[in-house]
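hiii, so i know i said id send this last week but things got crazy w the move. better late than never?? heres the sequnce for the chain we talked about at the cafe, plus the structure i predicted for it. fair warning i was half asleep when i ran it
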Amino acid sequence: MSNIVLLGSTGSIGVNTLIVAKRYNIEIEALVAGNNIDLLNEQIKEHHPKIVAIANEADRHKVDHSNVLCGNEGILKLIEDSNSTTIVNALVGYAGLAPTLKATSLGKRVALANKESLVVAGEFIDMSLITPIDSEHFGLWYLMNERPVSKLYITASGGAFRDWELNKMKDATFSDALNHPNWSMGNKITIDSATMTNKLFELLEAKWLFNTSTVDAVIEKKSIIHALVEFKDGSTTAHFAGVDMKLPIAFALRGEVEEEILPPTDLLSIGALEFLPIEAERYPIWDIKEHILNNPHLGVVVNAANEEAIKAFQEEKCSFFGMGDIVLDAYQKFENVKAANIDEIIQIDKEVRSYVTK
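okay and structure toks below
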């Protein structure tokens, strides 16, 4: 691959993608960023993209580039005009869906770190064009190797509150929830990790990517094992790797990687490993796990309600557990909706947000 378009260049996945691209002399045709214009300008200076897109028109004058597009329309035009056959989508949230649809409609391959795309509209996306950038799904793919499988497992860290007493969690603040024990990523994914919504989304992603509903998750506190596969012959294999996204990114960009991207896992320094169940009293969203895996079209409802619930929590309009109440209430209210196409997905998304914010 000679060139790529990178959406979400200033987030942790974007930054790591640029490191991997530089290592393999992959040219950056275009960069898309949100509000971190200072970092974007550094990236422009180093990687010389032909075109750039940013979230807000008001920031255009701050960008050190002669060819700057703005807003969602700008991003879609940039994808359409690009020569690259691979689009790396590391945008956060629902905003990442339209670019995924645009890229796949043009037959471009999407290296996808935007889980919401599949959660909201997996049914309408051509999976043959999707390569996930996610340690869990990468781990599953790496292990499966086309052998007959009986069950897939992904692991969860347990989030910021896994060791808190339950009665303290109800008073947890937004900044408490951002205090993740194992890694540092953006606000949304860290909050979703604390509520376990992130893992529910990853189960839905696995359902679409691997065409199976027999997928589950367990807590593994050290985040050393990312995925396990149970085979029909009765054996189970696990994927061990450090917490570093450069490995899945390198495979997504290269297809195959033969040299060391990460140092091997030091088994002796890990010592013991422990697997724990994900319990609904600590993670109320887990109550709908089986139902949503059998009704994955409801991902659009959970995603919309969850994005609004996070805003409410950040603005102190609801408690930590209040986020779960908002999502589960919307899930019940809209459990009979089923989109027949993308236009209906967009409509349902709007209706859920409007219901939740009222």
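btw The longest helix spans residues 299-314. thought thatd interest u
miss u guys!!
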